[in-house]
């Protein structure tokens, strides 16, 4: 590097680097800056001593301050639990209808119940609680076993046709394929369909009504409005769990499908179930 | 045996010989600025009083906003996410006002720099103001420049120790007061002051005071010019802001050179004599430790104290003021051409004067016209346009807003009577510190009725809703449309909110979804 270049104006030598005729002066750094640089190095070493840092064979140094991110999460979670404490206590002591009537408690229960719903319920009822064929839509105003908050609580706690819970909601639609003839099934299906929509063959309706009166009114009622005590669906409305139309109705009359819902009371505890009931009730169809 | 001269001499040179070795770092050279007096010094005292006054007193100003909002005129309420500035209250989503002010500050800085150079650095920058304040303390305790140099060179004695300890103690008190004033912008000042002294304030308050005390003491007391020269990016940016029509503090060597301390002797020898008597007054007062006579330098913050110092000397000598002055590069170059007879020779100050000793008519002087040029017009236009835009937006902004979020899952629900229901999360923003009752109404979508979760009223098309002062109220709204009123998969309608008392209203256009083939 014999071609040392001295800048004419400042009289300072340059680093020898040149970009489009621009050269870099080789001025020394201020000493405090260099000292600051050394301090950062010392700081970094101290930091690795104070905090977990150096990798060992199977783990890493723990750091003398005893910091751990897992502990931090644990503390934050327990702080969050403590913050929620008074709401949880209130939910424990109050009934679901009382909770639903209190703005603050309802807001808390809807949030907590929504979280529990997304973990435990979405597998059958869908992420928006919109259900699917055979799994009821929880947003609408049609309830097999009742849509009041305490009825929902009962359903969630003990389930439906869930054999291992003695208090489970229980009913069974008989398989009419073995009881009445195929023609009768066609007639009663046309009659049931006609309660909520226009059917093609009007001649089926009178015999269908007769079949209905003989076989179905015991559970579904004289006016086919159903019975929530038995979980017998309202057959006059627009909502069909196993599909609308004569064919779908005939299939359900011949060999009925019986949905099962697990009992959640023992698994989730009373408080969580209450929150779930308030959440489901808040979806818009609650009675 | 060879003779000495016969030994071949190699053409080699030690690359790292002590003679040419560069030092890795340089010790800081201490600066002892002398007290200056004059117009610019007066102006700087004024700026200092005003800026420090604004900084310390603002949090204590009161502004009555009624019972539902704080009465502090300027308050950054981080916990509640509100910013209060006298009659203006800003919610977080209105932060663009602050962004707009920052853009205005940026363009304003460009405008100031392109006209009067680094005026920000020289007069208004907190670093400059606090260094000035710290220098006042230093002078009061240790004396002016010569006394301080002497004290610094002296060996440690009880007197030196006492002076140094008291100086640093007062600096630390100023630092604590600086940090202390800062936190009052973030909480109710009188309450916080009480809490501070009873040790009940939030830890973050003490930490902030401690950090700002440390930075104020370090930057204002210890580092001073090092901050401007090495740490601050603005001196680098301003180089791009200056042009040949920008005013900068300039040593007018076209009248000052050749400088001499023995004017009469030189004059007698028939050589030209400049106005500069080489008294170094300009160097002694410089807080950056530079010699302005070397020309424009990146260290210069244009505090103009050298102008004051030089003017004082010129007055004593009976010469015109302005040997060091605010001048533009174009004027300076024109005068240099004059003084060097077109750049052909060295400076001869007699060329800029007439026979009677006054400046010739051809000497260029600054004229206010030079401030107005395309560039500054553009800056001024940008600055005022942004300002007017902000003002317009501020004067016409809504203090009542409605935001609607349509449920996406499920998009619609079929009800038992065949009607279709859509769900909406409706947010009502009452942005004034008073409670009010507002009317929420469905407009359009004939036949539709809504119900609101938690509002125990039969479904309808209009609801009166209570909103708390300065709060957002979130509502879960269900809109239900009978099957026979459904026309298509997506129908639009508006949700309106209205305050009958103030005639304010806001609306949101929402969509109502239905299944492909509604029954």
Secondary-structure blueprint:
The complex is a heterodimer of chains A (287) and B (519).
Chain A lengths: L13 E6 L2 E4 L3 E2 H20 L18 H25 L2 H6 L1 H18 L1 H4 L23 H10 L23 H13 L10 H11 L1 H4 L25 H9 L10 H17 L6
Antiparallel strand pairs in A: 1-2
Chain B lengths: L24 E2 L12 H19 L16 E4 L4 E4 L2 E3 L5 H21 L2 H6 L1 H17 L2 H9 L4 H26 L5 H9 L5 H21 L1 H7 L2 H8 L6 E4 L1 H4 L6 H6 L12 H5 L19 H13 L6 E4 L1 H11 L34 H23 L3 E7 L6 E2 L5 E11 L5 E8 L5 E4 L9 E6 L3 E11 L8 E10 L4 E10 L6
Antiparallel strand pairs in B: 2-3, 3-4, 5-6, 7-9, 8-9, 9-13, 10-12, 10-14, 11-13, 14-15
Helix pairs in contact in B: 1-4, 2-16, 4-6, 4-8, 6-8
Number of helices of chain B: 16
In CATH, the architecture of the largest domain in chain A is: Orthogonal Bundle
What do the pLDDT scores of chain B average to?
90
Q: What is the domain total for the residues of chain B? A: 3
Number of domains of chain A: 3
Largest interface: A-B, 33 and 31 residues
- Mind summarizing the main beta sheet of chain A? 2 strands, antiparallel
* Class by SSE composition of chain A: mainly alpha
Ends apart, CA distance between termini of chain B: 124 Å
Poorly predicted regions of chain B are none
> Which geometry of chain B do the CA atoms define?
elongated
DSSP strand count of chain B: 15
Please identify which CATH superfamily of the largest domain in chain A we are dealing with. Cytochrome c-like domain
* SSE order of chain A, one letter for each helix or strand: EEEHHHHHHHHHHH
Cα-atom radius of gyration of chain B: 35 Å
Per DSSP E runs of 2 or more residues, the count of β-strands of chain A stands at 3
What is the CATH topology descriptor of the largest domain in chain A? Cytochrome Bc1 Complex, Chain D, domain 2
What shape does the CA trace of chain A take? elongated
Strand content of chain A: under 5%
């Amino acid at each position: 590097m014999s071609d040392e270049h001295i800048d004419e104006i400042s009289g300072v030598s340059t680093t020898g680097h040149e970009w489009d005729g621009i050269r870099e002066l080789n001025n020394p750094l201020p000493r405090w800056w260099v000292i600051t640089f050394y301090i950062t190095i010392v700081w970094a070493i101290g930091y690795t001593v104070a905090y977990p840092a150096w990798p060992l064979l199977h783990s890493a140094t723990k750091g003398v301050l005893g910091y751990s991110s897992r502990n931090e999460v644990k503390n934050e979670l327990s702080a969050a639990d403590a913050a929620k404490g008074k709401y949880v206590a209130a939910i424990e002591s109050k009934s679901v209808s009382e909770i639903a009537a209190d703005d603050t408690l309802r807001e808390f229960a809807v949030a907590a119940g929504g979280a529990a719903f997304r973990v435990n319920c979405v597998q059958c009822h869908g992420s928006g609680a919109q259900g699917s064929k055979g799994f009821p839509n929880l947003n609408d105003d049609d309830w097999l076993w009742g849509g009041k908050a305490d009825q929902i609580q009962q359903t969630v706690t003990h389930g439906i046709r869930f054999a291992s819970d003695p208090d489970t909601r229980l009913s069974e639609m008989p398989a009419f394929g073995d009881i009445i003839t195929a023609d009768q099934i066609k007639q009663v299906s046309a009659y049931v369909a006609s309660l909520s929509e226009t059917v093609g063959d009007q001649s089926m309706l009178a015999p269908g009504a007769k079949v209905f009166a003989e076989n179905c009114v015991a559970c579904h009622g004289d006016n086919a409005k159903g019975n929530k005590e038995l979980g017998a669906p309202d057959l006059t409305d627009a909502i069909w769990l196993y599909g609308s139309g004569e064919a779908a109705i005939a299939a359900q009359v011949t060999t009925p499908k019986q949905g099962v819902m697990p009992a959640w009371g023992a698994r989730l505890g009373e408080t969580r179930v209450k929150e779930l009931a308030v959440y489901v009730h808040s979806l818009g169809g609650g009675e | 045996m060879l003779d000495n001269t016969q030994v071949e001499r190699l053409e080699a040179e030690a690359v790292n010989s002590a003679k040419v070795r560069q030092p890795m770092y340089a010790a800081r050279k201490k600066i002892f600025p002398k007290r200056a007096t004059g117009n610019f010094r007066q102006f700087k005292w004024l700026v200092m009083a005003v800026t420090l006054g604004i900084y310390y007193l603002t949090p204590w100003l009161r502004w009555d906003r009624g019972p539902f909002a704080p009465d502090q005129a300027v308050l950054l309420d981080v916990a509640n996410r509100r910013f209060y500035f006298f009659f203006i209250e800003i919610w977080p989503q209105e932060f663009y006002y602050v962004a707009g002010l920052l853009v205005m500050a940026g363009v304003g800085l460009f405008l100031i720099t392109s006209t009067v150079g680094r005026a920000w650095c020289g007069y208004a920058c907190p670093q400059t103001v606090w260094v000035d304040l710290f220098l006042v303390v230093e002078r009061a305790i240790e004396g002016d420049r010569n006394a301080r140099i002497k004290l610094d060179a002296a060996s440690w004695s009880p007197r030196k120790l006492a002076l140094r300890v008291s100086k640093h103690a007062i600096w630390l008190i100023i630092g604590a007061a600086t940090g202390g004033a800062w936190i009052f912008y973030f909480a109710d000042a009188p309450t916080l002051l009480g809490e501070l002294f009873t040790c009940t304030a939030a830890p973050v308050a003490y930490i902030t005071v401690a950090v700002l005390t440390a930075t104020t003491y370090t930057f204002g007391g210890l580092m001073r010019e090092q901050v401007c020269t090495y740490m601050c990016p603005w001196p680098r940016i301003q180089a791009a802001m200056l042009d040949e029509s920008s005013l900068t503090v300039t040593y007018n060597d076209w009248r000052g050179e050749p400088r001499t301390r023995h004017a009469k002797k030189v004059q007698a020898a028939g050589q030209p004599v400049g106005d500069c008597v080489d008294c170094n007054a300009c160097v002694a007062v410089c807080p950056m430790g530079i010699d302005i006579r070397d020309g424009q330098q990146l260290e210069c913050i244009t505090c103009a104290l050298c102008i004051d110092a030089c003017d004082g000397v010129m007055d004593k000598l009976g010469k015109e003021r302005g040997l060091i002055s605010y001048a533009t590069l174009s004027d300076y170059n024109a005068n240099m051409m004059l003084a060097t007879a077109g750049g052909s020779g060295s400076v001869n100050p007699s060329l800029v004067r007439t026979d009677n000793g006054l400046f010739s008519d051809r000497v260029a002087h600054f004229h206010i016209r030079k401030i107005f040029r395309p560039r500054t017009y553009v800056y001024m236009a940008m600055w005022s346009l942004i300002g007017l835009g902000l003002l317009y937006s501020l004067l016409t902004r809504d203090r009542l807003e409605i935001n609607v979020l349509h449920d996406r899952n499920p998009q619609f629900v079929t009800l038992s009577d065949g009607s279709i229901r859509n769900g909406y999360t409706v947010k009502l923003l009452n942005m004034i510190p008073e409670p009010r009752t507002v009317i929420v109404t469905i407009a359009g979508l004939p036949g539709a009725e809504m119900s609101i979760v938690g509002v125990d009223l039969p479904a309808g098309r209009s609801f009166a809703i209570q909103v708390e002062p300065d709060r957002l109220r979130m509502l879960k709204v269900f809109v239900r449309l009978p099957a026979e009123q459904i026309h298509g998969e997506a129908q639009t309608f508006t949700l309106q909110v209205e305050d009958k008392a103030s005639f304010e209203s806001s609306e949101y256009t929402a969509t109502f979804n239905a299944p492909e083939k509604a029954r």
